[in-house]
Amino acid sequence: MIVRRSAAVLAAVAVIGAAAPAAAAPSPSPSRPALPSALYGEGDPQYDGVWRQSLALLAQHTAGVAPPKAAVDWLTGQQCADGSFAPYRADTAKACDATTTVDTNQTAAAVQALAALGGHDAVTDKAVGWLKSVQNKDGGWGYVAGGASDTNSTSVVVGALAAAGEKPAEVKKDGRSPYDALLGLTLPCEGDGAGAFAFQPGKKGELTANADATAAGVLGSLGAGLAAGPGKGGQADAACAEADSPGQAAANGAAYLTDALAEGGHLVSALPGAEDQPDYGNTADAVVALAAQGSTEQARRSAAWLEKNAAGWAAQSGPAAYAQLILAAHATGADPRAFGGTDLVERLTATGPAPEKTTGTEKADEEKKDDSGPGFGVWWFVGVCLIAGIGIGFLFSGRAKKRQP
């Protein structure tokens, strides 16, 4: 996902750019302490720990797997006293302060995961309170508090509000709701990028179509979250028309995505020099958005493309990538345990602590499968994605990565 181009992100890129490639398996050192055993993935969590943990828990929940208590406790323990979440706090005994890099995306993702699991109202209520306190005057949110509103951040917060039982249309700042902010980021039906969402306006206020932001904007306009199910929009394959309502904006965005996916079934990378390479993460996000809107035909075609092609990407990228594919399977009614011959749930589970229990059907499946370990890699090169606007799609993916020291 594209996120706010903040000074903190720029600093992150500087750190990442200076890192030298090394072995995949991290080892404790004076400069790099061992990662928590309850955390999913082996990559450096500095930029995405809460995000990938939230996606992992959410994906497991949609697949009927009860996440281990330790993993859930790790996530709730990351919360700051004011309700916000930073990407990763190595020492949670130390109170958050002005130097703690909290952000709306991590906070909103945590809310969505914990609300789905249930029993964490105190945590989610406090997080929603913080999100409301940093809402911008245009009704939207930026990646960091006070940052200019963008489609991706606004949409993931909308998903969090809805998950927590709020009515996003009634969450207003200066009389404007998040839907007003999203409508202001839609392109007209004429010209390049007709019906798409922009990430943010350009320096002169111009709007440029962005597939990643469009997938996010469709979900946000529907009031849906990262684990959206099929058919929420109810306007399948509608023609582009003036976006005078959130529902029409979602329909327009879905039409744009359908066109973008029609030729090859997938989106392509926005990385310079890699424009002809598939973008697996953003394709998975587009599948969820299209399914939620009700554009099931294209959603299923692109999900089928992911089944055939995305296993290697997920194995290299880690838990967030497996989670994205599970959420795409969930949205389209596919079986995440037989996704192109890969048991995505098993692979995701293997990147973290073992789940404590499963539902009846899942338990039977667990007893039948062999326990040979899957291959999975590190996933952490987030900074460049944040700056270049090429994330996972809908918020972080593992497309461009460096090995951890």
UniProtKB/TrEMBL annotation:
Gene3D superfamilies linked to this entry: 1.50.10.20
Domain of life assignment: Bacteria
Signal peptide per UniProt: 1-24
InterPro entries on file: Prenyltrans, Terpenoid_cyclase/PrenylTrfase
Annotated transmembrane regions: 378-396
Domain Prenyltransferase alpha-alpha toroid span(s) in chain numbering: 55-165
GO molecular function, one term: catalytic activity
Record keywords, A-Z: Membrane, Repeat, Signal, Transmembrane, Transmembrane helix
Name under which the protein is recorded: Prenyltransferase alpha-alpha toroid domain-containing protein
Basic and acidic residues bias spans: 359-371
Stretches for region Disordered: 348-371
Matching Pfam families: Prenyltrans
